[in-house]
Amino acid sequence: MPVVPKRLPGAVTEYTTMKVSPLAGSIGAVITGVDLKDRANKAMWAELRRAYLDYHVIAVRGQALAPADQYEIGRFFGEPCFYPFAKGMEEFPEMTRMVKEAGERDNFGSDWHTDTSYLKEPPGTTLLYSVETPPKGGDTLYANTRAAYDALSDGMKTMLNGVVGVFSGGLKHKKGGDRAAHHARIGHMTVQNSNEADKYEARHPVVRTHSDTGRKALYLSSLHTIRFDGMTEHESRPIIEMLNDHCIEPEFTCRVSWEPGQLTVWDNRCTLHNAINDYHGYRREMRRLTVGPEQPR
Ligand code: SIN
N or C terminus of the chain: which is more exposed, having fewer CB within 10 Å? Predict the structure, then answer.
């Protein structure tokens, strides 16, 4: 039986082809009762897209997906993108395996960020599929940066109007060292371009307008936004850090737990995420595909 999700501002509430269970007040839903390999079910795909736009993060449980399935589902959301810092899979070079072995300490994606925002055309959407998950821990946190923008004062919104961020892949503000240092510690991932990371730099508005919904969202992170264009780091970092902290206030967040065979799809245009590194001693393996390159405006 279809389940009617809680009403969200602007959300259409009825889903007839799937069960949609909201995860928190402002972001995230778990979806069950669908088969993502059913390509012909147009009503289901339309509802999936609606749930993605309403909730920004959808965790679709109970899917047995081969890389080819994930790739095809990804194309429903946009053209696949290359990830510059890990080698792709042989058959699907845009898809990467994200592995933390039981004996490793560092994981991939453990700071709040939106994916590859240092590219000129960052991917609008990420599709992460869980192959192996730890018995406990290894959840991913998400934050709704559209709700965070809405909650800013009018004065701050006016101040940020037209501000451009400088986004870098160098990870110069990452705890424990820059990109090369980070890569040296995530041994089981097939990393690349470790010493070229500073060359991946782009400028984007720190308030972007969503290309599907027309809603404004904050677009920045302490990890990737090194300064505002036309300002020094000394001048801009405190504001970037304040805005990052504002985005991750609990009321804008949800927590997605994983089980093998789960496809979580998120909207990088209006979210941040953070992979929690709390499962030392256990293996976690994911397959990641980013799609829908677009220049933030
Ligand atoms: C990522 O940052 O894309 C990875 C998130 C995760 O592994 O949970």
Answer: N
